Amino acid sequence: MTILPTAPAPATLREPAISRLLFADPRLAPLWLLLRLYVGHEWLSAGWGKVTNPAGVWVGEKAGAAVTGFLNGVLVKTGGDHPDVAGWYGWFVENLALPNAVAFSYLVAYGELLVGVALILGLFTGIAAFFGGFLNANFLLAGTVSSNPLLFILATWLVLGWRVAGWWGLDRWTLPRFGVMEHPDTVRADPARRPAEPVR
User: Fold this and answer.
1) DSSP structure class, residue 123
2) Interatomic CA distance for residues 138 and 51, integer angstroms
3) Which of 32, 76, 104, 109 pairs with 200 at a CA distance of 20 to 30 A?
């Protein structure tokens, strides 16, 4: 009988105590709630303003008009010795975004709205924050500063703290259904299912 060699157990990287405290400790959930509500409010306000715009330049009869004007402004920023917009992003705007301005208009308006609602409710917080940060990154690449740097930083923090950022929100009950984390009531009731204390 041949005994096959067993593969070595994979190395486990220990999470530093400060990282666990900041990004996984429910005691900091109130802080994450405030951060999440602020970012969610910013996105909800921006998206709601676009969706309900009376001129219909984002969604409606004239959808794409606002995006077309914005993107044409982006192309102007690609010239000169020190352009505000990188050449590759200008290519993307000219060849992909502008020809599909109507689709991008709906994506931006409803994307902002959905990110805001998800963050305020604490539903799939990490995913919502990721897409919010993705929108911020695109606005920054397009040469628009405004509140985008701050929101991008806060979105990055929310992505890092996804385990606790939605603790005071729907994630606390939604994520266990997807097997992402234990339901808090189950862990409290069954000591055997509580995470083991790390070896010091």
Assistant:
1) S
2) 20
3) 32
Query: Of the candidates 143, 2, 3, which has an alpha carbon nearest to the alpha carbon of residue 80?
Result: 143
- Between CA 35 and CA 43, with CA 27 as vertex, the angle to 5 degrees is 15
Distances (CA, A) of 137 to 130, 132, 142, 175: 10, 9, 9, 27
| pLDDT tens-digit map of 110-157 | 999 999 999 999 999 999 999 999 999 999 999 999 999 999 999 999
Alpha helices in the chain (DSSP H): 17-24, 29-51, 65-76, 87-92, 101-121, 125-141, 148-160, 162-165, 171-174, 184-189
Residue 179 CA to residue 161 CA, distance in Å, equals: 18
- Reading the block at residue 136, the tokens are 């911020």
Owner of token pair 């208009």: 105
Q: Could you tell me which residues come within 8 angstroms of residue 103 by beta carbon, excluding any fewer than 6 positions away?
A: none
Q: Is 146 left (phi over 0), alpha (psi -120 to 50) or beta?
A: left
pTM score of the predicted model: 0.83
Which token pair is 23? Answer: 């990004």
Q: Where do the domains of the chain lie?
A: 37-184
